[in-house]
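REQUEST FORM: STRUCTURE PREDICTION
Request ID: SP-0412
Submitted by: Lab K.M.
Chain count: 1
Length (residues): 402
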Amino acid sequence: MVSRPQSANRTILLTLGRLPKALDLARALHEAGCRVLVAEPFSRHLTGASRAVAASFVVPAPVEDLEGYLAALQHIIERESVDDVVPISEEILYVSLLRGRLPSDVRLHAMPIDVLQGLHDKYQFIGRCIEAGVSAPETALVGSDEARNLLSTGSCVLKPTISCSGRGVRILTQGAIAPQVNEPSILQRYVPGRVLSSFSLARQGRVLGTVLYQGAVMQGTVAVAFERLDLSPQIIEWIAKIVAHTHFDGFISFDFIESELGEVFGIECNPRATSGLHFVEPSELASFVLDDSRSTGARSADSIQAVSMGYRSERLLQQFYPCLTETQKSLFTSGPFQKNLAALWSARDVSWRLDDPWPALSMPWTSWPIIEQAVRHRCSFGEVAMLDLMWPPRLPSSGKLA
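STATUS: Completed
RESULT:
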């Protein structure tokens, strides 16, 4: 392959297009002068409707044909002279397997699979928390004596070790009998409090910037409208410690419980981008992907540890169509209709832009593959959107983590 440019004018391959965060990243990179391509198992998708995208390519679903998926990505990378491969969501675990299979001048924006797996797996993640010296709820594998002891002494949260979009999450009261599960699962001490989420840019184990936010309108356990919050010193320190411990590089996100006493406990990690990305100024996102000086470690330790970044002016954002659906649903149920309506009315839609209107306007058509499967499988849009990207579960080691 020919020598590649090192900043703008690069060709970037996004490995998913169906989610709004892919659209934000595509627009940011396009405005920075990049040629943006998208690889996506769905033949039509949200980001593909954007003028920021030069071309979209249909690839096999990695769950159904892993080798076919990786081969298709390699073919696109070589044929289109791709400079950077940027995963968007759950597919990052599959895309990371391209390490060692790409030309040396192609930058793969994904950590090695063992690092990703150790954070993505909810049981192994608690182990990383213990190693890093950060707080997390007491956790044990379902079926172990430790899990039975946990449930006998207090309420617990039951969830699969590998899942997303809140799939399989249940709260069990003290003394309950843990139900039979058909996949590796954990019991985690239930901590009353509010759920907070973070999205960080990390480079070589140092935090460049963090967004802290909470759900304003919920679709199950998934936020479809979200509010940016001020960062607390506790969360800044918590994220800095685990990013340093794992020497993480790239987008990384965490979910926390802030207890009624103000204590912060990490409960899950997404070693990838999440909805917090929408709060970051597009120029910051593009700079993070393109700025080679950040990846060389040339900046001083003091400057690279900064935890502030350029934010968009809005503190409240929404994904309009799912937010509309939830607001309508809450009108006829016991849901918080007034709260949902206020968010729907006042929050900016993350997909709408006057100079690039088609992604928002055509969303009912581009999202039809997800809508059709949600109806057929009788589950949420968030769950369906990940069905063809779910990482195969691994059995973690037995025992108790606290």
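NOTES: The chain has 16 helices and 17 strands.
Reviewed by: T.R.
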